[in-house]
Amino acid sequence: MASKNPRRNGGRRSKWAAAALIGIGLLVTGGGYAGATAAMAAGDTTQTASTLTVEDGKKLFQANCATCHGLNLEGTNDGPSLYGVGELSVEFQVATGRMPLQMQGPQAPQKPVQFTQEQIEAIAAWVQSEAPGPTYPESEVLDGEGDVSHGAELFRINCAMCHNVAGAGGALTEGKYAPPLTTTSPLHMYAAMVTGPQNMPVFNDMTLTTEEKRDIISYLMLRPTENSPGGLSLGSLGPVSEGLFIWIFGIGGLVAITVWITAKSN
Predict the structure, then answer these.
(1) For the chain, which terminus, N or C, has the lower number of CB atoms within 10 Å?
(2) How does pLDDT run across 169-225, given as a tens digit for each residue?
(3) Pick from 210, 212, 193: which is nearest to 201 by CA?
(4) Transmembrane region positions (predicted)?
């Protein structure tokens, strides 16, 4: 009796066998690729964990910063000299995304950071080795254990006129502004006081002692955890925002009620 499937008996493979082979091939290829990718990632992690040297910082600086600041920190027409700014200033400017500068303007805005923290510290270390300046403080200055009450008083006297009494920031002249301090790290608070970035004055130890800086930092670290006992804070921008709120909703509500009463009486 003749076979009903002569092609299969003649050695022709089933279509399901071909699909199975393709699937096995894809699984093997995908598994191999996943394994290779994991191995490369592990290698990258090991490389990232390695400590960069001052020489690495020099190369990073020359590749990313020298166009404006010069190969030897001497400055150019597009950027100031970095002699004496120190590693603290470099870390502040680069770690907050202000540098490299996005565009020329009244003030360098914060933006996403373009380097890892290790790269930033390597660049800062090279600048410090070539042109020393302000450096990192002792850890206790940033521990938040200072005199909060004294820090609040010092902040109101020295900082609130620009940064607002709540640290919410504020506008200055000619398109400049004082940034909010609600998310600023303790290190960058200290760096700003010591180095005077943008339009901020420098508060050296004759103006504010290290202990007084610690008190201000402790106060600012406490601020984000405080509640507003009066209800809505309205941005904590003071009488301007409060007056605007009253004008729009208070007087606006009275006008609306007056119009409604007049319409009803007619």
Answers:
(1) N
(2) 888 888 899 999 988 999 999 999 999 998 899 999 999 999 999 999 999 998 755
(3) 193
(4) 244-263
DSSP structural state of residue 200: P
Q: Are 86 and 18 in contact (CB under 8 A)?
A: no
Q: Which CATH number fits domain 139-222: 1.10.760.10, 1.10.3430.10, 3.60.15.10, 3.40.30.10?
A: 1.10.760.10
User: Peptide bond before 100: cis, by omega within 30 degrees of 0?
Assistant: yes
Tell me the CA distances in angstroms from 183 to 122, 144, 231, one per residue in order. 25, 15, 22
Residue 239 phi/psi, 5-degree rounding, is -65, -25
CA gap 187, 192 in Å, rounded: 9
Instruction: Output the known binding site for heme c.
Output: 65, 68-69, 159, 162-163
Where are the chain's structural domains? 54-130, 139-222
pTM (global) more than 0.70: no
Residues contributing to the annotated binding site: 65, 68-69, 159, 162-163
Query: What is the Cα–Cα distance from 178 to 162, expressed in whole angstroms?
Result: 6
